[in-house]
Amino acid sequence: MREARPWTRRCGGCSTSRWRRSIGSSPRLAWARAHGDPGTPFDYWRLADDAWAVIDHLGLDRIAIAGHFSGGWTAMRMALQQPSRVRGLVIVGSRADPYDSYDRIGYEAVIMDGWIQGDNPLEHVAVPIASSTIRPDPEPRRYWLDNG
């Protein structure tokens, strides 16, 4: 049997539990900064540095990197930092270009005005988020909607 090649997966916001089935067979696992206990400073370059530190500690040379949503932003930074060490890069649900002013205004209206500073109910937002970010299993989705 051929030995598996090393790779790293960078999870996106709120999605770490989605990956439990596949990471259960992984021999080594390190959660990213601010996933679980956000008591440490956070930025994507720092997450990339952290990931390379773990990879170096494990004595790995070239790896494939997979990143989902915000994990894709970390994965892209990892590839920029050490391109010669990256065998492959898989990016899912991320974008490399900066948001334009139209996108930024839209996100600000939803997140800042609607969620953080406003008193708008989240139900109209929770259902689309639940259906797109939570496994298609109805039980976890229902739990998130009921207890979110």
UniProtKB/TrEMBL annotation:
InterPro entries listed in its UniProt record = AB_hydrolase_1, AB_hydrolase_fold
Flavoprotein is among the record's keywords:
no
What does the UniProt keyword field contain? Hydrolase
Residue ranges annotated for the AB hydrolase-1 domain, each copy included: 26-99
Q: What Gene Ontology molecular-function terms does this entry list?
A: hydrolase activity
Which Gene3D superfamilies does this entry report, sorted A to Z?
alpha/beta hydrolase
Name of the protein: Alpha/beta fold hydrolase
* Organism lineage: Bacteria, Bacillati, Actinomycetota, Actinomycetes, Mycobacteriales
